[in-house]
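ESCALATION

Customer reports they have been waiting on this structure for their group meeting. Please prioritize. Original submission:
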Amino acid sequence: MSRSKVSASDGPSKPQAVLVDPLMDEDPSDDEILESMRRGMEDVKAGRTRPARQAMAEIRKKLAADADSR
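Update from on-call: job pushed to the front of the queue and completed.
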């Protein structure tokens, strides 16, 4: 996905392509953040959890894969 961007120094006839990460295009709303937190608290309350070591290993793996793909 790309967008065109024109800066004042380039003039209106020289647009520049700007890459946009679709995952970073929009920030979550406050309602979405609160809903995610509520679901997380319900999971903890119901005992649907996993060890932090396992969760952190998964996050490190995803970050490494993302860094390798760039």
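Sent to customer with the following note: The helical segments are 30-45, 52-69.
Escalation resolved.
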